[in-house]
Specification:
Helix content is about 75%, strand content about 0%. With about 475 residues, it is mainly α. The radius of gyration is 23 Å and the shape is globular.
Length: about 475
């Protein structure tokens, strides 16, 4: 069940919100929390019933780890043992479900063996809920967090708006909100703001992302038959599609949280307005980037000299990030290239060097476009094939007329895609983002009108809605 679907908008969410409010009103916060946990588990089970025991089991096991850590001496031998077991359980699940076949394929390729691939299905949302749980365990080990009541912990893990694709929220950011005065009490301003942000996210997904995804995937699925303009069109389409797809989901998650008076962290902050790649990764998928920074980068950064440790920590962080995004060497290469570009940006900052603005911004966006090919392709070889097509401008000199005609033919064949790309560029480069809209929000009739128009248009196209791209991670 995706947020941008009839069943969610007209059935699931109204029923959950009504049930939650009634429980809080007549039976108190404890009943409201139990209801919210049950509804969230139902939400997960609706999309992946076979893995519901896995989610519930890992949630219970890790609460046991947290309980154990809260009873032993901080960072002593027993604490390190418990932390090691927590890593073994959480990372072990990720390795088994996400990387078993990748490891088998790699061994077969290197050693010439013929081990059979396993028939393993990736549990929905495992990359996100595993990281969220593990961050809490590590924070308790480090003394940054304390064990909370089980119901608060269970809400933190299962809260359905961010359960599957984030944004990743810290335990100590979530649980105080569950004890706040507003929890369980409808707040009109939050509901109005939530409706507006949900409408924006829904429109991003359905009106912009879905058609662009279909167009880009069509090119990648028939790779070898595309020309220069089709290749660039697909790369632009995927670049904007991923942003509108994932930021659309994040907007809807944040909006749904507001109905329960739970503020989820922002996931995006106009990433295509970045000046360099370090700036880009401070703006893109912010909560995941912060996770990698806090738990990988800062664990390495204290070794070596200033620039040396910066390079080591950055490269390690992005190699892990690449592998986390997918089990394939093109993801590892994608992480490595991003790491190099972030190192360049950071070193330039340390050396007090920077490109002029007129060059820095377009050059960064061009880099984003080109690096994304490694992420979107199915393999390194396919990515290289796309790069060859993108760089093949020989027809522009040997058959200029035919080359220009192919460009006009592409535009005439896909006028809707061209219009969506122009609209996407306008929104990404010139329009305020969701955070800025929320900061300026005041209940006004015009915002209700904006939300109504966006939701109405989205509902007309909702019958062909697709899953979110990040569901595969």
């Amino acid at each position: 069940m995706v947020f941008s679907s009839y069943s969610f908008i007209f059935l699931f969410f109204p029923a959950v919100f009504l049930g939650f409010t009634l429980c809080a009103r007549f039976w108190g916060r404890t009943a409201a929390k139990v209801f919210l946990i049950a509804a969230s588990l139902f939400f997960y089970g609706f999309g992946s019933i076979r893995f519901l025991p896995l989610l519930a089991g890992t949630m219970l096991i890790n609460y046991g780890f947290v309980t154990g850590l809260s009873k032993v001496r901080a960072r002593g031998g027993a604490a390190r043992l418990i932390l090691g077991l927590a890593f073994l359980e959480n990372i072990g699940l990720l390795v088994y479900y996400k990387y078993t076949n990748f490891l088998i394929e790699t061994v077969n390729a290197v050693a010439g063996t013929d081990f059979t691939l396993r028939n393993i299905i990736l549990p929905l949302g495992i990359s996100f809920f595993t990281f969220q749980i593990l961050s809490y365990v590590v924070d308790v080990y480090r003394g940054r967090s304390k064990r909370s009541a089980f119901l608060d912990y269970a809400v933190f893990v299962t809260f359905f708006p961010q359960l599957i694709v984030g944004p990743i929220i810290r335990h100590d950011d979530m649980t105080p909100q569950l004890a706040g005065e507003r929890f369980g009490r409808p707040v009109a301003r939050n509901m109005m703001l939530g409706t507006l942000i949900f409408a924006i996210g829904c429109a991003k997904k359905i009106i912009l992302a879905d058609p662009l995804i279909a167009h880009a995937q069509n090119f990648y699925n028939v790779m070898g038959n595309g020309n220069f303009f089709e290749a660039w069109g697909a790369v632009f389409a995927y670049t904007f599609a991923y942003y509108f797809d994932f930021s659309g989901y994040t907007d809807m998650a944040i909006a749904l949280g507001l109905f329960f008076n739970i503020r989820l962290p922002q996931g995006f902050d106009s990433p295509y307005k970045a000046r360099n790649f370090a700036d880009f990764w401070r703006r893109w998928n912010i909560t995941v980037s912060q996770f990698f920074e806090d738990y990988i980068f800062r664990s390495i950064f204290h070794f070596g000299d200033r620039i040396g440790k910066l390079i080591l920590a950055t490269m390690a962080t992005f190699l892990v990030s690449g592998l986390w995004h997918g089990a394939g060497w093109h993801y590892v290469l994608w992480g490595a290239v991003n790491g190099v570009l972030v190192c360049v940006a950071n070193i330039m900052t340390l050396k007090r060097k920077k490109l002029p603005s007129w060059l820095a911004y377009p050059l960064t966006f061009l880099g984003i476009l080109l690096v994304r090919v490694l992420f979107d392709a199915n393999s390194v070889s396919q990515a290289l094939a796309v790069y060859r097509t993108l760089a093949d401008i020989r027809p522009a000199f040997t058959a200029t007329r035919a080359f220009l005609q192919s460009g006009l033919a592409y535009l005439s064949s896909y006028p809707g895609i061209a219009a969506l790309l122009l609209a996407g560029m306008g929104l990404c480069f010139f329009a305020p983002n969701t955070r800025e809209i929320a900061e300026r929000f005041e209940p006004r009739p015009r915002y209700a009108a904006y939300a109504g128009v966006l939701l109405t248009v989205s509902l007309f196209f909702m019958g062909r809605v697709s899953s979110f791209l990040y569901f595969q991670f």
